[in-house]
């Protein structure tokens, strides 16, 4: 007997969550595993944010909140967009949800008809595809190779749009590759979209505050103001403020879209936790010193991983411009043999070998629809990352890649 609806057949569990759970299970068995699968910083939520949550609970902010968010948090979101992004929204144009993922789910459920296509520049955050699938849409993966900086080009976008296209997803900077778009890139993409009035754009900007090498962030809605009625900007507090477990995300867009998304949310979860919303508001209203401190730490960790990968024959890495991941190329390892003679046939085999030989939990590039790569989170401490990279180097060095490389076991 099957309890699952047929629409779930094509939907897969989150790859990063699965890897994280597998790593935890391995550690529970006494195995020495370094978990680099989950996109979660090792920092604690800053104490002033925790204090704000405690104060809110003590003050009685423990009842049902408005479905679309508390007035205080929505006002903080509006102020954030105005001061940091140069964007003007009214309160009716903002929704607060249980994490940014629910914002995306709400939007797709509110707008997708069966057969509507959603363009996903690959590599992309895996749940994008599964959310589209579960709601009857058709995900259209557009490969964005390393030579293009893992960025969607105007040519690839133009070629992917069809009469059935409903949404285009952007992720700025991106998970898993840390790709960053120049302002001109965004303007040029907007020029293509301007010719297709039915197409909406979802700009996932959850990693906005994690940018490296002196880069300045530009929201897609700020780069393409003429398209604002067709842009949903998604963000949240989980990454910038080390608040992953608080589950607060938000979106801003046309009031009719936000109204439809609120209707969806009213039947799924109602409003997000009132205490967590108070904490998020305090995070956004208060000093931003911790945000900058976290970013500086992430950049140092990025630098460490880039330098380590450069020393490992068989792996490649485009230095990520933002976020806290490394999307590592492993094409040279395909076809290699493990010491027991097993052939490495794909990037899933690479990650399986890294787990077996090195105790490293990583996510294969196939989970993001671009192979052969694997993703590691660089949100761990420098000490942990240095140890992990040494283990990866040792595991790769154990592979027999044949006489053409001169590297054998």
Q: Features of this protein?
A:
409 residues, single chain, alpha/beta, 13 helices, Aspartate Aminotransferase, domain 1, three-stranded antiparallel β-sheet, 2 domains, disordered C terminus, seven-stranded mixed β-sheet, Aspartate Aminotransferase, domain 2
What can you see in these coordinates?
This protein has 13 helices and twelve strands. The chain is an alpha/beta fold and 409 residues long. It has two domains: 147 residues, Aspartate Aminotransferase, domain 1 (Alpha-Beta Complex), CATH 3.90.1150.10; 239 residues, Aspartate Aminotransferase, domain 2. The strands form three sheets. Strands 2-8-7-6-5-3-4 form a seven-stranded mixed sheet, with helices on both faces. Strands 9-12-11 form a three-stranded antiparallel sheet. Strands 1-10 form a two-stranded parallel ribbon. It is globular, with a radius of gyration of 21 Å. The termini are far apart.
Mean pLDDT: 95
Query: Main beta sheet, described?
Result: 7 strands, mixed
How much helix is in the residues?
Answer: 25-40%
Q: How many domains, as an integer?
A: 2
Q: Low-confidence segments, ≥5 residues, pLDDT <50?
A: 405-409
Number of E strands:
12
What is the helix/strand order? Answer: HEHHEHEHEHEHEHEEHHHEHEEEH
Global morphology:
globular
Helix/sheet category: alpha/beta
CATH homologous superfamily classification of the largest domain: Type I PLP-dependent aspartate aminotransferase-like (Major domain)
